[in-house]
């Protein structure tokens, strides 16, 4: 069909520039990532440029089916994305429009300069929540003690440190009550900015009182308050990084998405990073990938009955967690573990929110859920978390 159209149509419209318009549009949008905050802004700019280009060719392309299809398609896309007809447009010269404070545009510039196809950047996810449960940049899942201050991330662009405190008296269970983030100075995009959150004080500003870094017009780094005192987002456009911080109950959770090449930009002395290398073996609560579950009514070695202080049984904890999470993945089992350990129902909301953050920030949908191996699911050989409700390793003597 295309060859027939070309024979009957293209020869009559050799000066029609619709193909160039389409090629430019693809060039403007190929590097964009729908998960990033500025996607709609940049996509609308590209659509307006596409529309301007087609308008300029309206006379010479009159009667060209490809041209008319493009015009209709532009209109549909602009309606879907709520793009205004008036506004900035993408330039046909990428070198002239390169924004050094927009990480998503770096690959396009490198491709343009090297004249070679550059693959889109790879993004990684790390999250910390609950008692505390850690999902590393490698999608390994661990439950750790890590009492006191520990570095989650420490590279050339960003430092994130968390402080964990005991949850239950006499127990090694801990949870996060303080988060400190340092966005390091970067070119003209931002001065060094420090953010700090503690329990019952989740500010929507950096410690210096500002809500953004660098030129306020470019918004290369800024904080967005989603729920006052309970949920904020930090968007560092210049390093393609997004951070979510929440307070649920008395404790904090954190989720972060960052480009792989920046995650790995650190010195040998910075190798103690929980998000990169996981928790030290001496700090692990899970045993060889299995998460022990304390259970009421079972017998400990020696014949003593196990009675967790939480007030939950395995059945009631499972029911409570199932109200929020229908899929029995690692977040569900973490919820059960936290309820049996602490008795604090806020940990149910923490596990549920942690899963929502994964769905919002993790780049690979097929890796959102990590399932117990015995359940037939999984995300491949990198999955390190294998839990079964039948695996009831009683650790009440050593842990509770």
TrEMBL record:
<feature type="domain" description="Repulsive guidance molecule N-terminal">
    <location>
        <begin position="16"/>
        <end position="85"/>
    </location>
</feature>
<dbReference type="InterPro" id="IPR009496">
    <property type="entry name" value="RGM_C"/>
</dbReference>
<dbReference type="GO" id="GO:0005886">
    <property type="term" value="C:plasma membrane"/>
</dbReference>
<feature type="domain" description="Repulsive guidance molecule C-terminal">
    <location>
        <begin position="123"/>
        <end position="363"/>
    </location>
</feature>
<protein>
    <submittedName>
        <fullName>RGMB protein</fullName>
    </submittedName>
</protein>
<keyword id="KW-1015">Disulfide bond</keyword>
<keyword id="KW-0449">Lipoprotein</keyword>
<dbReference type="GO" id="GO:0098552">
    <property type="term" value="C:side of membrane"/>
</dbReference>
<keyword id="KW-0325">Glycoprotein</keyword>
<keyword id="KW-0732">Signal</keyword>
<dbReference type="GO" id="GO:0030509">
    <property type="term" value="P:BMP signaling pathway"/>
</dbReference>
<dbReference type="GO" id="GO:0080090">
    <property type="term" value="P:regulation of primary metabolic process"/>
</dbReference>
<keyword id="KW-0336">GPI-anchor</keyword>
<dbReference type="Pfam" id="PF06535">
    <property type="entry name" value="RGM_N"/>
</dbReference>
<keyword id="KW-0068">Autocatalytic cleavage</keyword>
<comment type="similarity">
    <text>Belongs to the repulsive guidance molecule (RGM) family.</text>
</comment>
<dbReference type="Pfam" id="PF06534">
    <property type="entry name" value="RGM_C"/>
</dbReference>
<dbReference type="GO" id="GO:0015026">
    <property type="term" value="F:coreceptor activity"/>
</dbReference>
<keyword id="KW-1003">Cell membrane</keyword>
<dbReference type="InterPro" id="IPR040287">
    <property type="entry name" value="RGM"/>
</dbReference>
<dbReference type="GO" id="GO:0010604">
    <property type="term" value="P:positive regulation of macromolecule metabolic process"/>
</dbReference>
<dbReference type="InterPro" id="IPR010536">
    <property type="entry name" value="RGM_N"/>
</dbReference>
<keyword id="KW-0472">Membrane</keyword>
């Amino acid at each position: 069909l295309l060859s027939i159209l070309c024979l009957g149509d293209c020869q009559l419209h050799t000066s029609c520039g619709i193909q160039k318009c389409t090629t430019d549009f693809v060039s403007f949008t190929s590097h964009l990532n729908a998960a990033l905050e500025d996607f709609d802004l940049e996509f609308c700019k590209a659509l307006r440029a596409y529309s301007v280009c087609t308008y300029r060719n309206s006379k010479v392309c009159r009667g060209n089916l490809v041209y008319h299809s493009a015009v209709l398609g532009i209109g549909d896309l602009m309606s879907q994305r709520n793009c205004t007809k008036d506004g900035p447009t993408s330039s046909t010269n990428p070198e002239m429009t390169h924004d050094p404070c927009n990480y998503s545009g770096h690959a396009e510039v490198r491709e343009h300069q090297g004249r070679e196809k550059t693959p889109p950047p790879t993004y990684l996810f790390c999250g910390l929540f609950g008692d505390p449960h850690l999902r590393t940049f490698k999608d390994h899942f661990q439950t750790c003690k890590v009492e006191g201050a520990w570095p989650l991330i420490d590279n050339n662009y960003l430092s994130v440190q968390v402080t964990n405190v005991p949850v239950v008296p006499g127990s090694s269970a801990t949870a996060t009550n303080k988060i400190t983030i340092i966005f390091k100075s970067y070119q003209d995009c931002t001065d060094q900015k420090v953010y700090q959150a503690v329990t019952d004080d989740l500010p929507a500003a950096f410690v210096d009182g500002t809500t953004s870094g660098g030129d306020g017009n470019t918004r290369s780094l800024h904080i967005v308050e989603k729920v006052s005192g309970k949920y904020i987002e930090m968007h560092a456009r210049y390093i393609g990084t997004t951070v979510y911080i929440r307070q649920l109950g008395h404790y904090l959770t954190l989720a972060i998405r960052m480009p792989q090449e920046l995650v790995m930009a650190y010195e040998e002395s910075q190798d103690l990073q929980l998000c990169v290398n996981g928790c030290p073996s001496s700090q692990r609560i899970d045993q060889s990938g299995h998460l022990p579950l304390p259970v009421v009514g079972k017998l400990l070695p020696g014949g003593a009955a196990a009675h967790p202080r939480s007030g939950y049984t395995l059945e009631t904890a499972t029911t409570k967690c199932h109200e929020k999470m229908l899929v029995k993945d690692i977040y569900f089992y973490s919820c059960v573990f936290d309820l049996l350990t602490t008795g604090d129902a806020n940990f149910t909301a923490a596990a549920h929110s942690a899963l929502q953050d994964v769905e919002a920030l993790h780049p690979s949908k097929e890796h959102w859920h990590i399932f117990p191996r015995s359940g037939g699911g999984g995300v491949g050989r990198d999955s390190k978390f294998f839990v079964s409700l039948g695996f009831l390793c009683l650790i009440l003597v050593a842990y509770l």
